[in-house]
Amino acid sequence: MHTNTKTKPVCRVLFIPPRLIFFRPILLAWLVFLPLWAQAEGVIVGQEAPAVSLPTLSGSGNISLESLRGKVVYLDFWASWCGPCRVSFPILEKLAIEFGPQGFEVLAINVDEVEADAQQFLADIPVSYLVVRDGQAISPQVYGIMGMPTGYLIDRQGVVREIHQGFRKSDGDELRAEIVMLLKE
User: How far apart are CA 6 and CA 16, in angstroms?
Assistant: First the structure.
């Protein structure tokens, strides 16, 4: 009769070879959080943009995304504490001025809890485009925002055509080309 002196693990589900033991915490975290990530909802390219109707930061009433139907819209989620937002605002202002007469509109949604923070940001970096406020952060949840800034380029029919997460100065040229393409449709 032969006896085996080496024991083999009975359950190999989470068995990790010793040389890969360093990655075990990463693997376990991935297994735990993957189901949560898979359940996260968000807007995707090709989907109709969810309705938004929010008060303007200037206090002059509400603006709805529906009221901009027929225009190409850049829906921009931003916050005063967002560094890349300080880069995007001047670029979006230039694009709004350049393409506004052709049917382009920027609708910026501020998500600061404190309105004064947003007002100070706009005093430092003034813009002429539409700025609304969602202090309760409901619209970012509907859109599935993961970070600031996040922008949605929406065509004249209300369909999301591009999603931009983050913003670098070099992103302006790419965004400009996408706007031009949609304005020609």
Answer: 17
Pairing of strands 130-133, 72-78: unpaired
- Show me where the domains of the chain are located: 53-184
Please say whether the beta carbons of 69 and 176 come within 8 A: no
Length of the chain: 185
Q: Which amino acid is at 77?
A: F
Write the CB contacts of 133 (distance below 8 Å, at least 6 apart in sequence).
Answer: 54, 55, 56, 57, 109, 110, 111, 112, 115, 118
List 49, 54, 63, 85, catalytic entry = 85
pTM of the model: 0.78
85 in catalytic set: yes
pLDDT tens digits, residue range 125-181? 999 999 999 988 899 999 999 889 999 999 999 999 999 999 999 999 999 999 999
Q: Which fold has domain 53-184?
A: Glutaredoxin (3.40.30)
Q: Is 11 a catalytic residue?
A: no
| Catalytic residue of the set 43, 68, 73, 82 | 82
> Does the pLDDT of residue 27 top 60, yes or no?
no
